[in-house]
């Protein structure tokens, strides 16, 4: 068993109030974002390219400072950017999966998964599996087994296919036993079949370990099929926030324009 | 359909007046300098026979066992200077390059100060460093080793920093987001990506160290160069030719060895 949820289902994990973000003073990227993500939810953040999805994710986890409003994660509020202690706490409870795997190509699969433990107390030895503590290596193997890649543990990361590399990235996020998993376009770099398998794996693991999932996607079919709730961003504002069952073509056209039907 | 005329660009772009003046100045500078320092035909005519007579006095090389033993000892010392100097230089270059690398250094905008120091190490020629160290620590191999250390830092510090700057950024950002410290990002993501070009630079540094250590003796910093200087000073040209041949073989062997190692790494 990998996960130990620290917040009871239904309790808010992330809340924002009037969140604003601008890279240049005159052109805000995010405006008046009010949202609340509760423990146990599976939420898709959708929107056209440039709508502010990735920026919002990065603001929520404190990678980018916000320029207005407040963010509350795991019960702790921050205004511009989280304090180092808040950030460390947030990172300990959150797993990240990035769009392009972001694995260290020349290192082994196992080393890449052990990297997921960097940031934990005394983690300086986690930069390579060969010198990491034995129990950390075992945790990494366990996480690799969850994504069916335990047999590839000692292969170099760049020897794997794109889909396998993304599974390694998931194992790297899972090894921390997170309460919240944040994924930025996890299926975008994969072909349709691999992308679908990836999302199914995500859903299965999050359900098994009761992990709250927040991911961005520009694939409406994925958003509708793999999440309970869909939040759409359009031009930096929340265009709608509803159950995925209630999604209508009209909603999608509003967010994506005429191309909505192609998804 | 409207006919569109396509005109190929001119083969040569025209020379601007400023460009013309710069080229002219450069040409004039070369001609004037040649007048001052290039050998005249008479001097060449006079010098060639003297070179011939020098070569004549250099053969056969001195192969007396006692002399060869002395050369072997000096060669060993030269090699030790090169090896110890290069290895110490490479090891010290790692933290220096980390501090100097733009976008990687924990010093942020102050990284350029470290870069400037590395440039200083590199731009001052090794013989001048050797002169400084001979004054500081006295004649002998220690001065030579210190020279090679500084020379290697000047070379490897720059190339290591460049390799770190060119390393794939995405894994570094991912590890930072996970909460890794600067040092963990360096060890976990940057070094594995930069390793092949860093090993390459280290092998070049070793090769360069062997070549430098041969001449350091000319200013009293130990090694075979000292023996070579004595031979020329005492007009023992047969001894000098032996030393030059041995140096030639050593440098050639070193280049062959590092080439092989480089090929294996690729």
Descriptive key words:
heterodimer, A: 263 residues, alpha/beta, Rossmann fold, 6-stranded mixed β-sheet, 4-stranded antiparallel β-sheet, 31% helix, globular, B: 266 residues, mainly alpha, MetI-like fold
Please provide the ordered H/E string of secondary-structure elements of chain B. Answer: HHHHHHHHHH
Biggest sheet strand order of chain A reads 6-7-8-3-9-10
Fraction in helix of chain B? over 70%
CATH superfamily of chain B: MetI-like
Q: What is this entry, summarized?
A:
The complex is a heterodimer of chains A (263) and B (266). Chain A has 263 residues and is an alpha/beta fold. Chain A is 31% helix and 25% strand.
Could you characterize the architecture of this molecule?
Chain A has eight helices and ten strands. By secondary structure, chain A is α/β, with parallel strands linked by helices. Chain A has a single domain, classed as P-loop containing nucleotide triphosphate hydrolases (Rossmann fold, 3-Layer(aba) Sandwich). Chain A has a six-stranded mixed sheet with strand order 6-7-8-3-9-10, with helices on both faces. In chain A, strands 2-1-4-5 form a four-stranded antiparallel sheet, covered by helices on one side. The N terminus of chain A is likely disordered. With 266 residues, chain B is an all-alpha fold. Chain B has ten helices and no strands. The chains are: A alpha/beta (263), B mainly alpha (266). At the A-B interface, α2 of A face α7 and α8 of B.
């Amino acid at each position: 068993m990998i996960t130990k949820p620290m917040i009871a289902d239904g309790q808010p994990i992330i809340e924002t109030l009037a969140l604003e973000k601008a890279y240049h003073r005159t052109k805000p990227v995010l405006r008046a974002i009010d949202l609340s993500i509760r423990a146990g939810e599976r939420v898709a953040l959708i929107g056209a390219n440039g709508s502010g999805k990735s920026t919002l994710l990065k603001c929520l986890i404190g990678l980018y400072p916000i320029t207005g409003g407040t963010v509350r994660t795991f019960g702790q509020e921050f205004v511009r950017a989280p304090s180092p202690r808040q950030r460390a706490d947030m990172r300990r409870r959150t797993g990240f999966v990035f769009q392009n795997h972001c694995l260290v190509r020349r290192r082994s699969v196992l080393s890449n998964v052990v990297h997921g433990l960097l940031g934990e107390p005394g983690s300086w030895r986690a930069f390579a599996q060969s010198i990491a503590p034995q129990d950390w290596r075992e945790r990494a193997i366990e996480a690799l087994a969850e994504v069916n890649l335990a047999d590839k543990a000692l292969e170099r990361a760049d020897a794997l296919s794109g889909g396998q590399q993304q599974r390694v990235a998931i194992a790297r996020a899972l090894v921390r036993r997170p309460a919240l998993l944040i994924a930025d376009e996890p299926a975008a770099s994969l072909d349709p079949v691999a992308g679908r398998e990836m999302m199914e794996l995500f859903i299965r693991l999050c359900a098994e370990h009761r992990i709250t999932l927040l991911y961005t996607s520009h694939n409406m079919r994925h958003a509708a099929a793999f999440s309970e709730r869909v939040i759409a961003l359009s031009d930096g504002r929340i265009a709608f926030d509803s159950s995925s069952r209630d999604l209508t073509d009209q909603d999608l056209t509003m967010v994506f324009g005429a191309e909505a039907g192609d998804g | 359909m409207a006919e569109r005329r396509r005109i190929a660009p001119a083969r040569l772009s025209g020379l601007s007046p400023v460009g013309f003046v710069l080229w002219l100045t450069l040409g004039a500078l070369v001609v004037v300098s040649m007048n001052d320092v290039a050998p005249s035909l008479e001097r060449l005519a006079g010098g060639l026979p003297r070179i011939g007579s020098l070569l004549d006095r250099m053969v056969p090389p001195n192969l007396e066992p006692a002399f060869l033993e002395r050369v072997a000892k000096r060669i060993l010392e030269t090699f030790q200077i090169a090896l110890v100097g290069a290895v110490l230089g490479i090891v010290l270059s790692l933290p220096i390059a980390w501090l100097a690398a733009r976008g990687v250094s924990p010093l942020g905008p102050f990284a350029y100060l470290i870069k400037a120091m590395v440039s200083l190490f590199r731009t001052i020629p090794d013989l001048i460093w050797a002169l400084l160290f001979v004054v500081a620590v006295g004649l002998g191999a220690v001065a030579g080793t210190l020279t090679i250390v500084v020379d290697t830092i000047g070379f490897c510090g720059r190339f290591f920093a460049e390799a770190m700057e060119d390393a794939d950024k995405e894994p570094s950002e991912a590890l930072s987001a996970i909460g890794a410290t600067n040092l963990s990002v360096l060890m976990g993501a940057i070094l594995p990506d930069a390793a092949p070009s860093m090993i390459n630079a280290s092998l070049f540094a070793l090769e360069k160290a062997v070549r430098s250590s041969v001449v350091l003796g000319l200013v009293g910093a130990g090694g075979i160069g000292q023996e070579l200087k004595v031979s020329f000073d005492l007009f023992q040209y047969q001894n000098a030719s032996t030393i030059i041949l041995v140096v030639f073989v050593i440098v050639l062997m070193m280049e062959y060895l590092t080439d092989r190692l480089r090929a294996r790494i690729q």
